[in-house]
Design brief:
This protein starts with a helix and ends with a helix. The chain is α/β, with parallel strands linked by helices. The chain is globular and about 60 Å long. The model has no long low-confidence stretch (mean pLDDT 95). The longest helix has 18 residues, at 314-331. It is built from 11 helices and 10 strands. The strands form 2 sheets. It has an 8-stranded mixed β-sheet with strand order 1-10-9-2-3-8-6-7, with helices on both faces. Strands 4-5 form a two-stranded antiparallel ribbon. 42% of the residues lie in helices and 16% in strands. The relative contact order is 0.15. The chain has helices at 2-9, 22-28, 34-43, 61-73, 137-153, 169-183, 196-205, 217-230, 269-281, 285-300, 314-331; strands at 47-48, 78-84, 101-107, 117-120, 128-131, 158-163, 190-195, 212-215, 238-243, 247-252. Strand 4 (117-120) and strand 5 form a beta hairpin. The chain binds nicotinamide-adenine-dinucleotide. Nicotinamide-adenine-dinucleotide binds at residues 51-53, 60, 63, 67, 234-235, 251, 254-260, 266-267, 270, 307.
Length: 332
């Protein structure tokens, strides 16, 4: 899709394929080397990452090193997860109103994911496990600002902060103060706060109410899966990991789907929509729209994999989408 779209829009691309993943790890025991991290950081504008995870690596070392390694070492502090409902019948909700366009900004480098903590008296009845929730002012401020910048640039009306400030007073207090301070610099954009438990209910009740959502690593992980399912499921959900102005990595939200591997049943649309995010990120908005329109057209025409009710294989859907981009551009 990237090549097809670049061809019709005259975008110059230099694509390099990297062999990172379970196959390489099983072959030579390397997940990703320091030199490879350096090269990815210094020599490439963007990374388009496939899903990682293989049953023959039960500990998932390769996925953890590569995915979390890239997120932390490239300081990809924005995890942008747009959940856009392309057709009402894709939602499991009976009375969903379109449009639903939830654009989630999940903090991606702090919170409960930093690995601070430990276990003592392991394996005994008095075992203690501690996981520290790290929230720095710098970290909170930059993700909140990224959400407001996006809302301003894309003319969105409201930014909602999702937290648990009634129970987690220290971190919640920091997030709320920063949200107020930063938000005041964006007059015209409504500020809104929701406790994460209330948000889980409200997303099912009236997802159309929300626009841009900003939240911590853990809450973002959970809320974005819920939002993805409400807008068509994992097979459709793309994401971007960004250090704005410096590094960008795009990946589908889903994993490697080992239960359907090799059957041609995996929906390629989540990965394809990552291409739209990539193009959009580099200022090719029209090209990004072409990709999104092709996906919407495939759904409307029933050219889909079985998860969306169609009878197409993964590569048939891919070819259909690439043809669609080429023919739609020939007509316009
Ligand atoms: N970002 C990533 O690379 C990422 C994310 C999640 C899980 N994983 C890894 O993937 C492996 C499997 O994890 P899991 O089963 O929990 O999650 P998964 O997302 O791979 O699968 C969950 C369910 O969704 C289905 N599914 C996923 N993608 C689909 C697609 N494109 N089309 C149709 N159906 C799809 C699967 O068949 C499965 O039933 C594990 O090794 C896990 O660690 C990787």
């Amino acid at each position: 899709m990237l090549e097809a779209t670049a061809r019709v829009d005259g975008i110059e691309l230099h694509l390099v394929e990297w062999d990172l993943g379970a196959g390489r790890f099983l072959r030579d025991g390397v997940t990703i080397s320091d030199d490879e991290f350096r090269s990815l950081a210094e020599e490439y504008d963007a990374i388009l990452l496939g899903a990682l995870g293989h049953p023959s690596v039960p500990g998932n070392e390769h996925a953890r090193d590569i995915l979390l390694g890239l997120r932390f070492r490239l300081d990809l502090y924005v995890n942008f997860r747009p959940c856009v409902l392309l057709a009402p019948e894709l939602s499991p909700l009976k009375r969903v109103k379109v449009p639903v366009r939830l654009e989630i900004f999940r903090e991606n480098t702090e919170g409960l994911y930093v690995g601070m903590g430990g276990v003592s008296r392991k394996g005994t009845p008095s075992e203690v496990a501690i996981e520290e929730d790290i929230n720095t002012r710098v970290g909170v401020e930059r993700i909140v600002r990224a959400a407001f910048e996006f809302a301003r640039d894309r003319k969105r009306g409201r930014v909602t902060l999702v937290d648990k400030a009634n129970a987690l007073r220290n971190s919640g207090g920091l997030w709320r103060r920063v949200f107020e301070e930063v938000g005041q610099g964006y007059p015209g954009i409504q500020r809104d706060t929701m406790y994460v438990d209330a948000m889980a209910m409200d997303l099912v009740r009236r997802p159309e109410r929300y626009e841009v959502v900003v939240t911590s690593n853990m809450f973002g992980d959970i809320i974005s899966d819920l939002a993805a399912e409400l807008t068509g499921g994992l097979g459709l959900a793309p994401s971007a990991n960004l250090n704005p102005g410096r590094h960008a990595m795009f990946e589908p939200v889903h994993g490697s789907a080992p239960d359907i591997a090799g059957q041609g049943r995996a929906n390629p649309m989540g990965a394809v929509r990552c291409v739209a995010l990539l193009l959009d990120h580099f200022g090719h908005q029209k090209s990004a729209e072409r990709v999104e329109q092709a996906v919407a057209a495939a759904i409307a025409a029933g050219k889909t994999t079985p998860d969306l009710g169609g009878g197409f294989t993964t590569s048939e859907v891919g070819s259909w989408l690439a043809d669609r981009v080429a023919t739609a551009s020939a007509k316009s």
